[in-house]
Design goal:
TIM Barrel; single chain; about 35% helix; 10 helices; eight-stranded parallel beta barrel; 8 strands; globular; alpha/beta
């Protein structure tokens, strides 16, 4: 199927395998919107999940943070069997669904405390695949001390076990408590090459202006290298700037587009659990205009 992800109906998205999903993203030419939500947080709209709200604001890809494959939960969904959580969310939204897994055994603080079902292991990746997950994002939450080496090691193990029929996204949007991998050192060309060689399909890096030293020019240099390896690039807002004013969101979006991002990610901490909903739409309008944004918002999931 040769069609852009941003233009697909639910029935078409449901038929995508990993290879065709990656192709649909490439064909969208930097106009794919991903929104991350904390799936265990109280929904902003109480009885409607934050992921559903993000989809309504035009996100093409829904990334679930804090999703535990051993105890599946997305707060705000109707009553259902736990093992059907991802399939139900996909049915209600018609979107591509991803989850975060973290290559760490050391637990962070407060809400980011690790659980066994959130660790980046081959066993958890297989469970995620069986539950209907389309993408796995291997990254780290604040204070969980995820290193780039741990990410590379976990990708290799997961790819070997899970094969090629799920998309792997890898990288960091903030230091995750590793001060030596902060600022400009958050991701290097060496890290990117190791991620690619280990089996990553998409490399994640901070969006310009979200991390000190990650300028548009720096991001462009790294993304050009990612593309030279035949991989896709995702620029992420993971520094609570998803709760900024609309002018800041527009600036980040412009710079990420100029830097060459294939997927534009907006984080989960405008309010805790989701970006300011209007910022998802604002970002989308910057990278693809009102026509494609409203089209995604208005298109029925029954198509």
């Amino acid at each position: 199927m040769s069609k852009r992800l941003m233009s697909m109906n639910t029935s078409e998205i449901a038929k995508l395998d990993a290879k065709s999903l990656l192709n649909a993203i490439r064909l969208s030419e930097g106009r794919v919107m991903a929104a991350e939500t904390v799936c265990i947080a109280k929904p902003l709209l109480n009885d409607v999940s934050n992921a559903e709200l993000a989809a309504a604001m035009s996100a093409d890809i829904l990334i679930l943070n804090m999703y535990d494959v051993e105890k599946p939960l997305v707060n705000g969904l109707p009553e259902h069997e736990a093992q059907d959580t991802i399939r139900l969310l996909k049915k209600l939204t018609g979107r591509v669904v991803a989850i975060n897994l973290e290559p760490v055994s050391e637990s962070g603080d407060d809400i980011w405390n690790m659980s066994k079902g959130r660790m980046a292991t081959p066993q958890n990746a297989l469970k995620a695949k069986k539950q209907g997950v389309d993408m796995i994002v291997i990254t780290g939450n604040p204070g969980n001390h995820v290193t780039n080496k741990a990410i590379a090691d976990s990708i290799k193990e997961i790819r070997k076990e899970i094969g090629e029929d799920i998309v792997l996204v890898t990288g960091k949007m903030h230091a995750s408590g590793q001060i030596e991998e902060a600022g400009e050192n958050i991701i290097t060309k060496k890290d990117i090459k190791e991620f690619a060689d280990a089996g990553a399909d998409i490399i994640l890096l901070p969006a310009p202006g979200t991390i000190p030293g990650i300028t548009m020019e720096k991001a462009h240099e790294l993304i050009s290298f990612i593309h030279s390896l035949g991989k896709l690039a995702l620029t992420a807002i993971g520094t609570s700037q998803e709760g900024s004013d609309s002018d800041t969101i527009k600036r980040i979006a412009y710079d990420a587009k100029m830097a060459g991002a294939d997927i534009h990610h907006i984080g989960d901490s405008g309010y805790i659990g989701i970006a300011l909903p209007e910022n998802i739409m604002t970002y989308s309008i910057v990278i693809r205009g009102v026509r494609h944004t409203y089209h995604r918002m208005a298109r029925s999931i029954n198509r």
